Q: What sequence folds into this?
């Protein structure tokens, strides 16, 4: 079995460590370089010609790469994959190299692996817009939402308002790591894989739960009114 060669680059050591752990446990991936700055990443791509490079969009030099500086032994250019937070997705899609892929950082590890395998097979990936929620899906979600705790419902609502994990943590006075644990549990309970789907579900629920605007009572009527 041919292994997919990978260069990873991120400014944050914890992200590099996490990617190494996730990919290193899979027989079909081979991490050939792990970089904490753009210069060493570009050199690694040029010298090692990996199949894919997983990049930090916070490194502007990498977003500016219009053409990968290498061709791998299979005759294909290195496919650039930007591993980004949801709030930075538009920046990458508008300013990134043509033909690059985008994977959101809030996906589960198995979704990341599936996405990378799709990319290796020639697909370009980008996050989908928030999906429309059908009446049947909304009905099913009513039952699913009953399994969420009050805290999980709070976090779901704040995600739908576009808040990042750090902002949610400040709002609720809890640590970022605790938010991630809650989100992991929410995703599992609702059988979804990312916060985009969660936000769409929350917005749908809010729309359906919004009370109809009541008309003001007519003069002389109401619970204590009435004609005398």
A:
């Amino acid at each position: 079995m041919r292994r997919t060669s990978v260069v990873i680059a991120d400014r944050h050591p914890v992200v590099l460590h996490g990617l190494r752990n996730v990919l290193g446990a899979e027989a079909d991936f081979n991490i050939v370089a792990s970089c904490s700055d753009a210069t060493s990443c570009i050199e690694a791509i040029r010298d090692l010609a990996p199949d894919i490079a997983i990049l930090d969009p916070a490194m502007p030099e990498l977003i500016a790469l219009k053409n990968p500086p290498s061709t791998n032994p299979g005759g294909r250019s290195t496919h650039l994959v930007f591993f980004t937070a949801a709030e930075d997705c538009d920046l990458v899609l508008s300013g990134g190299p043509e033909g690059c892929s985008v994977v959101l950082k809030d996906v589960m590890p198995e979704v990341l692996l599936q996405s990378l395998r799709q990319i290796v097979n020639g697909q370009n990936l980008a996050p989908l817009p928030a999906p429309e929620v059908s009446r049947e899906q909304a009905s099913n979600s009513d039952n699913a939402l009953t399994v969420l705790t009050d805290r999980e419902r709070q976090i779901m609502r704040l995600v739908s308002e576009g808040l990042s994990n750090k902002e949610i943590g400040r709002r609720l006075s809890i640590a970022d790591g605790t938010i991630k644990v809650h989100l992991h549990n929410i995703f599992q309970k609702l059988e979804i894989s990312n916060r985009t789907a969660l936000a769409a579900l929350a917005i749908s629920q809010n729309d359906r739960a919004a009370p109809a605007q009541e008309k003001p009572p007519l003069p002389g009527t109401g619970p204590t009114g009435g004609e005398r």
